[in-house]
Amino acid sequence: MSFYERFEQIIALVLSAVIAVIVVVSMMQLIGTVFRLLLLDAFNPLDHATFQTVFGMIMTLLIAMEFKHSIVKVALRRESIIQVRTVVLIALIALARKFVILDPDTSPAKIAALSGAALALGCVYWLMRDRDDRAARAQGVK
């Protein structure tokens, strides 16, 4: 491996460790929040604020785990550091989380802007996947 590849691998390992700590702390907070809601506040999953809190925490935890997963691939040298399709999918997950935890009094302009961003990211992902599929077919034909 070159010097830069070793440097990239070290950074990926450090990032992976930091994200692992964040995931563990987030999981502990999620368990604590659900426990408090179940025992103290008579957990009602149909309550808008309760649902937003719990689901937002779960989605944040899943997003952190996906980041860690993509970084571990780099550390193990299975893929390069630049994984545009993974980043686009993580951004879509983050936008989906944002839609779930939106306040009821959110302005229509903000919802339209978030919808436009989700649509743009979806189009980018679709175009990238289509390009990769065409390239794979072209290599299979040759």
Question: Could you name the key traits of this structure?
Answer:
single chain; 142 residues
Helices and strands in order:
Elements: H1 3-39, H2 48-75, H3 84-100, H4 108-141
Helix pairs in contact: 1-2, 2-3, 3-4
Q: Would you mind describing this structure in some detail?
A:
The chain is mostly helical and 142 residues long. The chain is built from four helices and no strands. It has helices spanning 3-39, 48-75, 84-100, 108-141. The model has no long low-confidence stretch (mean pLDDT 80).
Oligomer: single chain
Biggest pleated sheet: none
- What is the overall number of helices? 4
Distance between the termini: 31 Å
Question: Percent of residues in beta strands?
Answer: under 5%
Please outline what is shown here:
Helix content is 82%, strand content 0%.
